[in-house]
């Protein structure tokens, strides 16, 4: 699959910014990911991301690190942090920006090391793709966690994107799938990615999945628009 995301990050990093990434989703929405936003510093980050970084302890694995904003902030504050991303361009951007430790791989292919904090920010739990993959995904995260470690993740309940009826209920298409399962395609400079699944999780569903996988799930903070920060601990 073409590394469209990585190509865009490298273009921006090396001063060749001319357009943003366009996204198409199964929610029938066309949107953009502004490249400058993918290079934001701590002061420009949403409150939930800032809070997660403030809660980080010990050795850190930044999963889906992108351009490395979170990892670089922690590294600059004395943390031993590793950035992991399946995008080769993202990892090259991180290296060029000064991140000392990086891993270019898919999360489920990475093993053999444990960390005190796993970060999955910018809806990193979305990497699970589909709800029926979540148990296996959480199990793999547990294998990367030191005995007293923590997983910090943010996500959104996208129920608000569906029509509401008079009694407050929501009209959700009866597709048989969980409503937070979305399929995305990215486009950059006339090149399109293959479609890929992405998962948005409401907190109760996350909590139930954690319970089934012997993880304690705490709601740390709620954002302004159906988003939240959660902390997961080994039971």
Automatic annotation (TrEMBL):
CDD domains: AdoMet_MTases. One of its GO terms (biological process) is methylation. Pfam families: Methyltransf_23. It comes from the Bacteria. Keywords: Methyltransferase, Transferase. The keyword Transferase applies. One of its GO terms (molecular function) is methyltransferase activity. This is Class I SAM-dependent methyltransferase. It comes from Flagellimonas algicola.
